[in-house]
C-alpha cells in the first residue's frame, strides 16, 4: 500500500538513490532537482535552469557524485556545491545519440545509443569513448550476476564482458586507409596509413573531435619519428622533415621509398631507415638532418629491424634473409653501410615473413616456425611456453613490451598477451578483413591496436582472463522420427527417447559476444574422441544405440581457451525385441509350446521382422547416401575461394602434392605459374575495396578462360593467383604465361599481371617447395624488371 503521496502540477523526470538520499526531478517552471528530506522534497542548489528540461538519466557515481543527462542534451555532475554542467562540454555529435545509461561500478558510466554505439563516460577525463555494437537503437542496459553487460537493441539481446574489450575507431572517426604505425607525441595521436597522415587529440576519449588528415603526403605514410627539429616522416617516396609550422623539407632523393625509422640508442644524431629496397642512414649536423648513406638491394624490403647494444643493426630483408648492418665511417662526414649475412634465403630455406626485436636481454627472431634467439653468432631455438600452444600454425608473431610489464604477441589474425607473472591468452581474434594486427601503442591503462583500416582501443589489463567465463549451453533439443511430427524435448533431466530409428538434433549456443568473432564448438559421445572444432553448433545424432548416453560439448573463441558446458544425459529405450527380459521370457515360452505350432508362428514373425529390417536397412542406406552427397558438396565448398570462385589455397596445395607425386612417373612434370596483380594495393586505395574485389573476380575469370582444361587455377593469397599445368615443359608453360599476360592486358580495363614460371624438378631435395620457391623468385624478378611481364625460374 502507498505510504506517502506527493503532488506536482508538472511532470516528473528521472529518479535516483544517492547514498541515503532520494533524488527526484520535477519538470516545469517551478521544477528542478529535489532531495527528499523529512518527507518533503527540497530544492537542490544548481545552476539556474539546468535541470528543468526532461532528465533522461540520474546515475550515482563511485565517488559520491551524481551524473545528470538531460534532453538538451547536456551532462552535469552533482557534488556538495550543487549541480554544474560538464566543462568542457562534449560535442553534440556524441550527446545527441545518448539513450539509456548504467553505472559501470568503476567510476565510469556506459551509455546506450540510438545509433547502435555504446559510449563509455569517464568523469575523470572527462570524455566519451565509443564501442560499435551495430544492432541499432539500444533500449536497455543491465548487469548480470557474472559482471557482464547485457544490451538490448533492435537485433535482440547481447552479453558483453566489461570493461568493453575493444572500442573501434575507424572511418566514422575520420580515419582511413590501412594502419602502418601510430605515435603519441605532444598531446596528439599521429596515425600513418595507406591514405596519408591523420592526427587527433590524445586523451579525453580518442573519438572526441575525430581524426583529421594532414596535407603532408600525396599517398601513403609509413612512419613518424619525433625530433627536437620537428617530425621525421617516411612517406611513399622520400623522407621529409616537418617543422613546427607544418612546413615540409625533403631529405635525400625521391626514390628512397622509406618504410621504417629507428633512432640509434647510442647516437641521438643517427636514424636507421628501412626502405623498400635496402637500408639507409640519416645523420644530423649543424645544418640539420641529411642522408648520410644508403645501401640499395632491389626487391629487398626491410620488414623489421632492431639496433643492438653495440650500435649494429639486425635487419630482416624480404626475399634476402637476415643481416647485420653497421655504419662505417669514411672520409670526412661520409659513412658507408657494411652488411654481414646471418642467414640467407634460398637453397634449403625458402623466403618467409620474419620479425626481429628484443625482450629484456634476449634478441629474438620470429618466423612461421616460431622464435629463435640470436646470441651474437648463431640463431638457436627459443621456446615460448604457453604462446607456442596458442600460436596459429605458420603465424609469424611480433612481440611488444608494455610499460606495465605485459608482453604482447601480434600476428596476422591474432593478438596474444601475458601480464607480468601471468599466462598467455588470446585477447583478440581478427574477423574477416581485420588483419594484419599491429602496431601496438600503450596509452595509460588502455592499449591501442591497429587492425587493418581501423584502430582498436583495449580497456582491460593485458593478459587478465575474465573472472567469469561464459559457458556454452544446449539451446534446443529435438527428436525426429520418420513419419512422425518433430518432437521438441524439455532440457530438464531425465531425457528419454522412444525405441526405433530416429535422429536427435542438438543446437548449442554460446552467449558471449566480447571477442568479435563467432564461437567454435566440439562434442563427444560417451567419452569417445572429440569432434573437430566448427562454427554453427548444430549436430544430429542418427539412431543412437539403446541405453544411457552422455553428450559433452565445449565452446571457444577462435584458438582461445575451451569452456565446457553442462553435459547432456539422455536414455534411448530399446525396441521390444532388444529387451533382455522379454527375450528370456520368449525363450521360456518357446521351450514349453508345441514344436510345430511354435515353429510356424516363429517363422511368420521372423519373416515380418526380416521385411522390417530390410526396410530399415534401405532407409539407413538412403540416409548414408544422402550424407555422402552432402559431404561431397561441403568438400567442394571448402576448396573454393569465396570471392573469385576458383580453387583456394587448400585445393592448390593438395593438387600440387598429387602432381608432384606423379611427377617422377611421367615424361615431364607439372609447371607452376605464379601470378600477381600489378599495383593492386594502389588500385584498392584509389578505387576502394569493392572495386578491388571486382578486379580479382575478373582476373580469376580471365585466367580460367585462358588456361588449358587440365590446368588448375587457384587463388594463392591476396592478389596472387597460381596456375598449375600438368605434363608440360618450360617452353610450353612460358608461352601459356605470355598468352595469359597479353590477354589480361587487353581485357582487364588497364590492369596487368606479372608471372613467374617454373617447372617441376624431381631431383630437388624438396620438389614441391623448390617449385614454389623458383616460381616465386621468377615472379619477383618480373616485378622488379618493371611488372606486366613474365619471369622464368
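-> sequence recovered:
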Amino acid at each position: 500500500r502507498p505510504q506517502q503521496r506527493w503532488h506536482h502540477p508538472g511532470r516528473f523526470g528521472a529518479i535516483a538513490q544517492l547514498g541515503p538520499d532520494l533524488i527526484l526531478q520535477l519538470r516545469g517552471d517551478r521544477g528542478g532537482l529535489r532531495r527528499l528530506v523529512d518527507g518533503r522534497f527540497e530544492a537542490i542548489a544548481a545552476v539556474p535552469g539546468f535541470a528543468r528540461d526532461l532528465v533522461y538519466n540520474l546515475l550515482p557515481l563511485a565517488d559520491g557524485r551524481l551524473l545528470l543527462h538531460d534532453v538538451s542534451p547536456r551532462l552535469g555532475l552533482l557534488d556538495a556545491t550543487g549541480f554544474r554542467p560538464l566543462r568542457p562540454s562534449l560535442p553534440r555529435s556524441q550527446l545527441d545519440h545518448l539513450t539509456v545509461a548504467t553505472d559501470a561500478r568503476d567510476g565510469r558510466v556506459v551509455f546506450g545509443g540510438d545509433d547502435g554505439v555504446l559510449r563509455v563516460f569517464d568523469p575523470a577525463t572527462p570524455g566519451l569513448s565509443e564501442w560499435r555494437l551495430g544492432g541499432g537503437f539500444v533500449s536497455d542496459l543491465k548487469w548480470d550476476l557474472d559482471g557482464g553487460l547485457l544490451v538490448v537493441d533492435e537485433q535482440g539481446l547481447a552479453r558483453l564482458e566489461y570493461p568493453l574489450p575493444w572500442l573501434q575507431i575507424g572511418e566514422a572517426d575520420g580515419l582511413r586507409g590501412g594502419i602502418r604505425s601510430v605515435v603519441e607525441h605532444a598531446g596528439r595521436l599521429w596515425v600513418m596509413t595507406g591514405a596519408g597522415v591523420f592526427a587527433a587529440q590524445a586523451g579525453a576519449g580518442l573519438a572526441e573531435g575525430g581524426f583529421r588528415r594532414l596535407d603532408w603526403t600525396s599517398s601513403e605514410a609509413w612512419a613518424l619519428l619525433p625530433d627536437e627539429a620537428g617530425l621525421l616522416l617516411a612517406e611513399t617516396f622520400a623522407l621529409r622533415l616537418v617543422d613546427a609550422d607544418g612546413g615540409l623539407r625533403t631529405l635525400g632523393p625521391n626514390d628512397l621509398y622509406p618504410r621504417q625509422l629507428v633512432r640509434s640508442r647510442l647516437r641521438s644524431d643517427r636514424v636507421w631507415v628501412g626502405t623498400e629496397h635496402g637500408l639507409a642512414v640519416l645523420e644530423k649536423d649543424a645544418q640539420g638532418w641529411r642522408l648520410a648513406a644508403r645501401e640499395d638491394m632491389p626487391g629487398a624490403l626491410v620488414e623489421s629491424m632492431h639496433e643492438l647494444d653495440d650500435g649494429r643493426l639486425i635487419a630482416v630483408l624480404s626475399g634476402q634473409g637476415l643481416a647485420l648492418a653497421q655504419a662505417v665511417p669514411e672520409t670526412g662526414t661520409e659513412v658507408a653501410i657494411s652488411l654481414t649475412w646471418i642467414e640467407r634465403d634460398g637453397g634449403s630455406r625458402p623466403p618467409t615473413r620474419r620479425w626481429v626485436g628484443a625482450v629484456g636481454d634476449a634478441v629474438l627472431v620470429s618466423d612461421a616456425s616460431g622464435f629463435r634467439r640470436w646470441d651474437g653468432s648463431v640463431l638457436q631455438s627459443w621456446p615460448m611456453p604457453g604462446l607456442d600452444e596458442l600460436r596459429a600454425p605458420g603465424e609469424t608473431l611480433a612481440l611488444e613490451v608494455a610499460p606495465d610489464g605485459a608482453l604482447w604477441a601480434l600476428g596476422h589474425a591474432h593478438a596474444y598477451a601475458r601480464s607480468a607473472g601471468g599466462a598467455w591468452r588470446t585477447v583478440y581474434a581478427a574477423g574477416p578483413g581485420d588483419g594484419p594486427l599491429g602496431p601496438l601503442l600503450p596509452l595509460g591503462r588502455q592499449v591501442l591496436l591497429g587492425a587493418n583500416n581501423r584502430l582498436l582501443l583495449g580497456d582491460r589489463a593485458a593478459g587478465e582472463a575474465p573472472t567469469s567465463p561464459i559457458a556454452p549451453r544446449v539451446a534446443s533439443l529435438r527428436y525426429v522420427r520418420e513419419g512422425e511430427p518433430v518432437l521438441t524435448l524439455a532440457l530438464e533431466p531425465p531425457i528419454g527417447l522412444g525405441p526405433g530409428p530416429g535422429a536427435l538434433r542438438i543446437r548449442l549456443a554460446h552467449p558471449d559476444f566480447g571477442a568479435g568473432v563467432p564461437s567454435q564448438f566440439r562434442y563427444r559421445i560417451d567419452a569417445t574422441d572429440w569432434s573437430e572444432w566448427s562454427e554453427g553448433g548444430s549436430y544430429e545424432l542418427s539412431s543412437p544405440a539403446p541405453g544411457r548416453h552422455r553428450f559433452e560439448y565445449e565452446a571457444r573463441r577462435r584458438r582461445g581457451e575451451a569452456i565446457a558446458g553442462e553435459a547432456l544425459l539422455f536414455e534411448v529405450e530399446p525396441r521390444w525385441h532388444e529387451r533382455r527380459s522379454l527375450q528370456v521370457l520368449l525363450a521360456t515360452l518357446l521351450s514349453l509350446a508345441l514344436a510345430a505350432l511354435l515353429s510356424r508362428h516363429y517363422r511368420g514373425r521372423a519373416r515380418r521382422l526380416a521385411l522390417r529390417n530390410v526396410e530399415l536397412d534401405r532407409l539407413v542406406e538412403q540416409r548414408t547416401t544422402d550424407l555422402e552427397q552432402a559431404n561431397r558438396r561441403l568438400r567442394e565448398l571448402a576448396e573454393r575461394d569465396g570471392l573469385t570462385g576458383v580453387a583456394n589455397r587448400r585445393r592448390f596445395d593438395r593438387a600440387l602434392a598429387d602432381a608432384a607425386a606423379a611427377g617422377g612417373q611421367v615424361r615431364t612434370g607439372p609447371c607452376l605459374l605464379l601470378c600477381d596483380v600489378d599495383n593492386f594495393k594502389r588500385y584498392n586505395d584509389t578505387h576502394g575495396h569493392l572495386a578491388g574485389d571486382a578486379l580479382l573476380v575478373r582476373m580469376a575469370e580471365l585466367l580460367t578462360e585462358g588456361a588449358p582444361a587440365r590446368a588448375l587455377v587457384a587463388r594463392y593469397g591476396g592478389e596472387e593467383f597460381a596456375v598449375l599445368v600438368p605434363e608440360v615443359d618450360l617452353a610450353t608453360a612460358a608461352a601459356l604465361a605470355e598468352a595469359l599476360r597479353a590477354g589480361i592486358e587487353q581485357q582487364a580495363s588497364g590492369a596487368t599481371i606479372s608471372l613467374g614460371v617454373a617447372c617441376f624438378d624431381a631431383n630437388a631435395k624438396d620438389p614441391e617447395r623448390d617449385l614454389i620457391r623458383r616460381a616465386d623468385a621468377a615472379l619477383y624478378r618480373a616485378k622488379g624488371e618493371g611488372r606486366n611481364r613474365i619471369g622464368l625460374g
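The first helix runs from residue 92 to 95.
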